[in-house]
Design brief:
The chain is an alpha+beta fold. It folds into three domains: about 45 residues, 2-Layer Sandwich (Uridine Diphospho-n-acetylenolpyruvylglucosamine Reductase, domain 2), CATH 3.30.43.10; about 120 residues, Uridine Diphospho-n-acetylenolpyruvylglucosamine Reductase, domain 3 (2-Layer Sandwich), CATH 3.30.465.10; about 90 residues, CO dehydrogenase flavoprotein, C-terminal domain (Enolase-like, domain 1, 2-Layer Sandwich). It is built from eleven helices and 14 strands. It has a five-stranded antiparallel β-sheet. Strand 4 and strand 5 form a beta hairpin. Helix 10 runs antiparallel to helix 11. The radius of gyration is 19 Å and the shape is globular. The model has no long low-confidence stretch (mean pLDDT about 95).
Length: about 270
Amino acid sequence: MKPKAFDYMRANSVDEAVAGLAKTGEGARILAGGQSMVPILNFRLADPELLIDISRIKELDYIKIDGNAVQIGAATRQAKVMAWPELADRIPLLAKALPHVGHFQTRSRGTICGSLAHADPSSEIPLCLAMLDGEVILKSASGERRLAAADFQTGMLSTAKRDDEMLVAARFPIAEAGTGYAFDEMAQRRGDFAIVAVAATVSASKIRLGVGGVADKPTIVEWGNIAGDELDDALNAFAWELGGYDDVHATARYRRELVRRLGRRVIEEART
């Protein structure tokens, strides 16, 4: 299939883009890398009046350290973030997750913020932002606001972004000394959306485990620094709490088992 006809605007600045959103409202959509938006248009899952292309807005193509966070602009490609020399030291969880995101061809076009805005529950980048208690910056013609990751993604392919807003940046907290980070997932093929994705952070006093692909948004749980049978029991209870679902890719039972097995694996890796 091909998309229905729409108007196209290549924005040269953030102000120009948000002005287009303000004028068109719910009939407008933002295009950055196009790795999610173009298939959605082709399958006619979205029928915009206006497509606003922000891919060439220079002020949105950046990676910078701002206080205790790394801020990434909405036009910044995933490949550029992967190639950033400081990534493994500053955001080790994202460094471990990004190689699982699509393929090098899609990462060369796809953006960090585009993945967050798409809000697929199996996507690795939203899981990382939620795990690290990151936040997003939204801008409209009337001003700017920040939302925590937990408040931004509201469900499957659903966010708290208003029709007149665009996501202009994401903020990932810088790694804490003495904390270990790990990520893993199970997919049918490397680069496919995860059947189950898991991420863990472990400090001297706390385990934090996040799961994507089971509920309609990333789900995070915290425990004390437990081990052995106590950890197995906690993982089992968490797997049953998530429940899972049956589809053409996996059964709910299989998803629960992945939560248990991958969960333990990433926790142990984060401990080392």
